[in-house]
Amino acid sequence: MNKLHLPLTYHWFDEIESGRKTCEYRRFTEGWSKRLSRLKKSDLVVFHRGYSSRTITRRIVNIRLVDGWNLPNEVYQFFGRPNESRFFEITFE
Predict the structure, then answer these.
(1) Which domains does the chain have, with CATH numbers?
(2) Plot region of 87 (φ>0 → left; ψ -120 to 50 → alpha; else → beta)
(3) What are the angstrom distances between the C-alpha of 22 and each of 15, 30, 34, 41, 49?
(4) How many Cβ atoms are within 10 Å of 4's Cβ, its own excluded?
(5) CA 35 → CA 14, 56, 75, 93, distances in Å?
(6) What superkingdom heads the lineage (predicted)?
(7) Residue of 75, 83, 88, 86 whose CA lies nearest to 11
(8) pTM of the predicted model over 0.85
(9) How many whole angstroms separate alpha carbon 58 and alpha carbon 71?
(10) What backbone phi and psi angles, to 5 degrees, belong to 26?
């Protein structure tokens, strides 16, 4: 079983911890393509609150590509209105 480790800002970590956020987004780049290509459904994603020892582990449900236009509002604003960009959507439970 593979694990993906992702450091997050306190805001996004707290959203996942509370259950309000069930997807994480990363820009479609060569680096992220390589990292995510080895993952499959039921692998684990480990979220770190900043670079602290506090973590949350979730099981990956799906990884897919989405357009910037289809990002949730708060995420869309965070990425600076990335209309024409593509993103990996990592859905977890």
Answers:
(1) 3-92 (2.30.130.30)
(2) beta
(3) 9, 24, 22, 15, 16
(4) 19
(5) 24, 19, 21, 20
(6) Bacteria
(7) 75
(8) yes
(9) 21
(10) -135, 140
